[in-house]
Amino acid sequence: MIAFVNGILDMTDGQSCVIDVQGVGYNVNISGYTADRLPGIGEIVKLYTYLSVREDAMSLYGFLSRDELDFFKMLISVSGIGPKVGQAILSVMTPDDLRFAILAGDSKSISKAPGVGKKTAERLVLELHDKISAEDITGADFGGDGLSGSSEKEGAQSEALEALVALGYSASEASKAVRKVLSSKEVSLDDTEAILKMALKELF
Asked: What is the pLDDT of residues 121-150, one digit of tens each?
């Protein structure tokens, strides 16, 4: 119903904000990730929104990027995860960190979000794993040959992530190391061992 709100940031408390759109104040719930990137009070801001409608309330959830909004919608499609929990998850992990965690099967990192127990985190990983690929994170820029989304390369990147998590690194740590390795273009994207070795060097 409301695709986005574009107006002046009137106030924010880190969990919600008020956007003044031509004299009408819209109260919008925001994640910690979005709150950290908001402009200053009195400045123009555009938030892509999701309207949650319940019998007793209508709540607007806003995000600075379509990517975060799309990931939020994916999260709340999982049984047991409502808008508030989805927002809580995005307050402790960025969309890319979540993608890495899901690909690596790191439900432990996800379960650290308020309101997310071990079983819910495991269900989230199980239900969303097949909906996310390494290409969603690395993007075509890392491929160089237009093939970054091939199954061999996605498999190698996912295997490297899983290996790092198995070694005790968090999804966030693993994601940053692998991202740095892939962006350097110093290794073949379908070489799991090479990606893993360079990622470990980044972590040491």
From this structure: 999 999 998 888 655 555 433 333 333 444
Q: Which residue has the tokens 């031509």?
A: 22
Same CATH topology for 4-64 and 66-132?
A: no
Boundaries of every domain in the chain:
4-64, 66-132, 133-204
| Residue corresponding to tokens 């409301």 | 2
Please tell me the CATH code under which domain 4-64 is placed. Answer: 2.40.50.140
Architecture label for domain 66-132? Orthogonal Bundle (1.10)
**For the chain, how far is it from start to end, CA to CA, in angstroms?**
49
Q: What is the pLDDT of residues 168-182, one digit of tens each?
A: 887 777 777 887 887
CA distance 16 to 37: 13
Q: Could you tell me the pTM of the whole model?
A: 0.70
Residue 49 CA, distance from chain mean position: 16
